[in-house]
Amino acid sequence: MTNRKAERQPLIAHLHELRRRLLWSSFFCLVGAAVAYVFHPSILAFLVKPLDKPLFYTSPAGAFDLVIRICLFAGFLFALPAFLYHLLKFLEPILPVTLQQRIVWFLLGSCALMLIGTSFAYFVSLPAALYFLGEFGSAQVQSLISTDAYFSFVTRYLLGFGVLFQLPFILLLVNAISPLSPRRLMRYQRFVIVLSFVLAAIITPTPDPLNQAIMAVPVILLYQVSVLGIWLINRRREQKA
Questions:
Q1: How many whole angstroms separate alpha carbon 7 and alpha carbon 10?
Q2: CB neighbours of residue 112 within 10 Å
Q3: What pLDDT is stored for residue 54 in this prediction?
Q4: What integer pLDDT is reported at residue 207 of this predicted model?
Q5: C-alpha pair distances (Å), 186 with each of 14, 181, 197, 212
Q6: Cα(108)–Cα(114) distance, rounded to whole angstroms?
């Protein structure tokens, strides 16, 4: 009986730790949502600016629903660094000692990549996609875009770019746990190119090859930069060894 309790205790402790870290992440999300509510008119104007057209809602609670979704989305982005930090701290016991000492740097790098990805989507890819889709309108066929459809479109677009730009972070994290072979990674480059265009076709709702290339090419370049970084890190590690 005592052996069973000794075996269950670490699992229970990990579950309590996981719950505590999820509660902290949820707390930061609520704080971010509360702050976003104060500034929701500016956030809404920022999100609608690439469209440059008024939005419409089709239900009495449409405007209220949009404000709540904007606040939750902003709260999620605000809590994302805290969520990543608690995730890495929860996985800390199985991480190498060298990686445990660099958790903050990995966290900052991941947040920087997320910021770069969403900024690239907002300032470069999203306006190009909206312009391409708007070209199919005419004097007889005009758009009447709802708040729900546009917000879903924009958030999927921004988060899609932010997640795809996490590729260097994932590769470097895996390399820190188990060293990767740069030569083998370069052999997988053809699959990365195909997968990048497939994901671009899924995330970007435009069949225009130019818009898909705007999303796929940065991912391919990030992969190559990541392989170069892994080669430099592994080479330095071998020299120290």
A1: 6
A2: 12
A3: 86
A4: 67
A5: 38, 9, 18, 22
A6: 10
**Closest alpha carbon to 185 in 237, 217, 229, 218:** 229
Burial of 241 (0-12, 13-18, 19+ CB in 10 A): exposed
3-state secondary structure 50-71: CCCCCCECCCCCHHHHHHHHHH
| Tokens found for residue 143 | 């758009």
Q: Cα–Cα distances in Å, from 213 out to 95, 125, 230?
A: 36, 10, 25
Q: Token pair of 4, please?
A: 């069973």
Which residue, among 165, 21, 189, has the nearest Cα to 90 in the 3D structure? 21
Task: Please tell me the predicted confidence (pLDDT) of residue 6.
Answer: 40
Find, among 163, 150, 156, 139, the residue nearest to 219 by Cα: 163
Res. 227 pLDDT band, cuts 50 70 90: very high
What's the mean pLDDT in 206-233? 85
- CB under 8 Å to 107, separation ≥6 — which residues? 81, 84, 85, 88
Interior angle at CA 175, CA 26 and CA 21, nearest 5: 15
Residues 92, 103: Cα–Cα separation, whole Å: 9
End-to-end CA distance of the chain: 46
> Structure pTM?
0.80
pLDDT of residue 118: 92
Of the chain, the percentage scoring pLDDT greater than 90 comes to 27
